[in-house]
Amino acid sequence: MPVGIFRVCLVVITAIVNHPLLFPKENGTVPENTEEIIQKMKEREESLRLEQLRLEQEIADQEATQKALEKAAEVVEESKEEKVQWDMWTALSMVIFLLIELWRQDFQEGNWQDTGGEEDDMAVLGKAFKGVAFPNKAVLASFYEKRILGTTGDMARMREMVEGFADDLLEALRSVCNRDADMEVEDCMGVGSMYENWRVRKPFVCDLIVPFAPPEPYCFRSQIWCSGDSFPPDEQGYGTIKVCRADEDVTGCICDKTKLGEDMLCLLHSQANTTRPSSEMEDLLCFKNTQYLDADQVMKWFQIAVTKAWNRIAHKYEFDLSFSLLDSPGALKIKFRSGKSIAFNLNPVVQYENSDVYFISHFPRSSLAADLPSSTHWFLTFAVYERRFVQLVSKTLPANACHVSCLQVLSFLHGKQCSLTGPSGLTNYHLKTVMLHLLQARPSQDWAPEKLEARLQDMLKFLEKCLHEKKLYHFFIGNGKVPAELGFPMIFQRAEPLNLFRPFVLHRDIYRKTVDTFHEMLRNMSALINEYTVHIPLAHTNGIHKQSL
Q1: 3-state secondary structure 395-423
Q2: Which residue numbers delimit the Mab-21-like HhH/H2TH-like domain (predicted)?
């Protein structure tokens, strides 16, 4: 303990002795150093004060910036909330609009099916019918007897002559073709107004379709717009035809999609089957460097084959045969030495699977229809099923039913009006579609012969409604009520309805012309019919009209 106290005392004494203020060194300048220190401290204090001011200014600027950012964020948040509210209202409005539109379409389609049998149909007709004088039953009966019935015998004789010549021509065509390399041509079939007995305007033209198939070992595999793959709107109603080998897998093999190595070989397909020279596919009438059947190549081949066939049998006939229209490759004309002529269409077609739906290379087009998307797109025709449907329904109708008469009168009126004011977007096929819809919708007893006047008004009313809405649906496509007896393919019944008036939305000038022509036809209807009607005494006409009431 004493030793520790001694050490502490020694350290304190040593510190006191060595302190610089008690024993300054020689030539010391303590006062001068103190003044310098004080001066430096003042300078330091001034610099610190300036630094403090700068920092305070920066802090103030940062606070102002922060407040501005907070204010901007609040504005953005408010705008987002308003935008969300606006988007929500917009979406809600669109949903309500779509629901109303769907309800309106369903309501209209329901009305199509419920055309009713009221005698006061004229009370609900549109503005176009106000002031229109409809011919009475006596005038319509006289017109039909004088203008329509007289053509039936002429059509029958012409059909018989054309069918006989076409069979002979196709038989000669088969003899000039190479059975191992050329397409195989089947027997022709008559379709259209001439074979459904409602053609009224001359010149009479027979429409014949000729199915054909590729030579062995090839086959056709078709793809339609409603088969599941997405097709643009302008390609609805069309399909493509692929030329394949008969032994080729329908679902496709992996060797057709994957590049195999040089040392690998597909066990299902030989190398000869998987490689097809471009020249071989072109010989099969395919589009260049593809396997898809080309409509233009088919028509070129068909025209050459028909020409060769005619040269072989021309000596048997006392008339000439020629192609009549450049824009319709299948249009043929028989010219007799007397100067008379007969026109008919002979168009090659491809059967869709095992049905009576056919792909047709060229179809009679109107000013309303657009051009084909490409020469590999083929239009589908349901003409065979349309004829069968009319025949099937006719068995349930009263004797001498007026459905064909209505179509004949309407077709005559429209054709006569177009000859006066120029063509419109309406075609005879549109008029036929209207009849098919009403034929399915109305009870059988409504088509009795004495109801011709009422049913004609129904067709005009239906047509006016379709023109106003720019909607006329194809009779078969999307129609789930097609009779099962027809054997119609279900894929078309389950498809979305096809609007034949869709082009009216795109071509407003044609639509305006069509509507004007329709209205003009209504105004001229009585005059057009009276022009071809035998004079009927007024008293007799009134008596018949009163009896019908």
Answers
A1: CCCCCCCCHHHHHHHHHHHHHHHHHHHCC
A2: 404-477
CB 533 within 8 A of CB 136: no
| Number of Cβ atoms within 10 Å of the Cβ of 385 | 21
Determine the pLDDT at residue 125. Answer: 47
What's the number of CA atoms in the CB half-sphere (13 Å) around residue 81? Answer: 6
| Chain segment 109-156, per-residue pLDDT in tens | 444 434 333 333 333 345 566 667 777 778 888 888 777 776 677 788
- Interatomic CA distance for residues 88 and 167, integer angstroms: 68
- The residue to which tokens 């249009």 are assigned: 331
Q: What average pLDDT does the segment 252-275 reach?
A: 49
Sorted by sequence, the CB contacts under 8 Å of residue 102 that are 6+ apart come out as none
The stretches of 19-29 forming alpha helices (DSSP H) are none
- Give residue-wise pLDDT tens across range 197-220: 888 878 889 999 999 999 888 999
pLDDT of residue 391: 94
| Residues counted in the chain | 549
Helix 452-469 to helix 428-441 angle (10° resolution) is 110
Say if residues 417 and 524 touch (Cβ distance below 8 Å).
yes
| pLDDT attached to residue 526 | 85
Report the DSSP beta bridge partners of residue 322: 333
Average pLDDT, the chain: 78
- d(Cα 322, Cα 328) in Å, to the nearest integer? 13
Helix (H) or strand (E) segment spanning residue 347: strand 341-351
Taking residues 6-19, what's their average pLDDT? 59
Q: How far apart are CA 96 and CA 539, in angstroms?
A: 58
Amino acid present at 30: V
Question: How many Cβ atoms sit within 10 Å of the Cβ of residue 491?
Answer: 16
Q: Tell me whether strands 378-381 and 238-245 are parallel, antiparallel or unpaired.
A: antiparallel
In this structure, of 78-87, 363-372, 540-549, the range with the lowest mean pLDDT score is 540-549
The DSSP element (H or E) to which 333 belongs, if any, is strand 331-336
- DSSP lists the bridge partners of residue 271 as none
DSSP calls for 186-242: ---EEESHHHHT---SSSPEEEEEEEEEPPTTEEEEEEETTSSS---GGGTTEEEEE
Q: Which of 71-80, 327-336, 349-358, 407-416 has the lowest mean pLDDT?
A: 71-80
8 Å CB contact between 444 and 403:
no
Domain ranges of the chain: 121-248+279-534
* Domain 121-248+279-534: CATH architecture, name and number where available: 2-Layer Sandwich (3.30)
Q: Please give the full DSSP string across 522-544, using - where no structure is assigned.
A: HHHHHHHHHTTS----HHHHHHH
Distance CA 60, CA 70 (A): 15
Of 523 and 8, the structure prediction assigns the larger pLDDT to: 523
